[in-house]
Amino acid sequence: MTAVDSLMLDAKQAIMDAHHRRFQTLHQEGRWEEALQQIHVILICATDLLNESFQVLDEALKTHNHTPTDHSTHPPTTR
Fold first, then answer.
1. Can you tell me whether residue 66 is helix, strand or coil?
2. What pLDDT, on the 0 to 100 scale, is given for residue 64?
3. Average pLDDT of the residues in 36-57
């Protein structure tokens, strides 16, 4: 995971957290219609965050699987 990936995930998490706080405020104030609309926004943010996380994980796995490693313990053959 690169620094850019980490920053992007942190930013998306912060946005989702801000929307969640907004939902809580609306809920506490009894503003039900707006709170329900906010739930929709939170779900969109959560979906985006999860998709981004899966992409980062997928890239990390692809990078890891393509890293050439030779763990063999066989001595070189001579002729």
1. coil
2. 85
3. 95
Q: Give the closest residue to 15 by CA, choosing from 36, 43, 37, 35.
A: 43
d(CA 24, CA 9): 22
Helical H runs in the chain? 3-28, 32-65
pLDDT tens sequence across 26-35: 999 999 999 9
| pLDDT higher than threshold 80 for residue 77 | no
For the CA atoms of the chain, what is the radius of gyration? 22
Question: Euclidean distance between the first and final Cα of the chain, in Å?
Answer: 45
DSSP state of 29: T
Task: Find the farthest-apart pair of alpha carbons in the chain and give their distance in angstroms, rounded.
Answer: 84
DSSP-derived letter for residue 67 is: S
d(CA 39, CA 43): 6
Residue 47's pLDDT band, with cuts at 50, 70 and 90, is: very high
